[in-house]
């Protein structure tokens, strides 16, 4: 069980958070788009910290689970907490894939594939524009102004 509040944002909170998105962020997070390969800001990020949902700030992946998949998108072998991502079936483009979305706000993050490294053998392939990054020791984002774990420091 996670220490984070997974209650979805209210309609007014969602509208306020969405208003701050760029066109590219809106297309990916809200319209389930994909950014071009090899151009995302977090593809080559080697800093120690936590990757969070760009929209609601929920911690999604730790930097120590990031690996170079060679695909052109930031890839991770395990989520921060399994309850922080939700898997849904994506049948777009004539394919069936496992799409991952933020468990709190439902924003599109990317897809998960069964071809990653041990110990999970999963490859969570994410769009950089779906993510924020908090360096180790810095305060986690708290755009929904919730207490508890959201008010904590990223480790």
What does this structure look like?
The strands form 2 sheets. A 6-stranded antiparallel sheet has the order 3-4-8-7-6-5, with no helix packed on it. Strands 2-1-9 form a 3-stranded antiparallel sheet, with no helix packed on it. It starts with 10 loop residues before the first helix and ends in a 20-residue tail after the last strand. The longest helix is centred in the first third of the chain and has 9 residues, at 11-19. It contains 2 helices and 9 strands; from the N terminus they run H-H-E-E-E-E-E-E-E-E-E. With 155 residues, the chain is α+β, with helices and mostly antiparallel strands. The radius of gyration is 15 Å and the shape is globular. This is peptide-methionine (R)-S-oxide reductase. Keywords: Oxidoreductase. It is an enzyme of class 1 (oxidoreductase). Belongs to the MsrB Met sulfoxide reductase family.
């Amino acid at each position: 069980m996670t220490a984070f509040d997974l209650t979805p944002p209210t309609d007014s909170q969602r509208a306020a958070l969405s208003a701050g998105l760029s066109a590219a962020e809106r297309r990916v997070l809200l319209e389930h788009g994909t950014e071009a390969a090899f151009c995302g800001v977090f593809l080559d990020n080697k800093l120690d910290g936590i990757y969070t949902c760009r929209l609601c700030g929920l911690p999604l992946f730790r930097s120590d689970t990031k690996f170079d998949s060679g695909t052109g998108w930031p890839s991770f072998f395990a989520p921060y907490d399994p309850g922080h991502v939700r898997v849904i079936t994506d049948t777009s483009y004539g394919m069936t894939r496992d799409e991952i979305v933020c468990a709190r706000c439902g924003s599109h993050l990317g897809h998960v594939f069964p071809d990653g490294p041990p110990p999970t053998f999963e490859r969570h392939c994410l769009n950089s524009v779906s993510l924020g990054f908090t360096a180790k020791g810095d305060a986690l984002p708290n755009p929904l102004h919730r207490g508890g774990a959201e008010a904590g420091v990223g480790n």
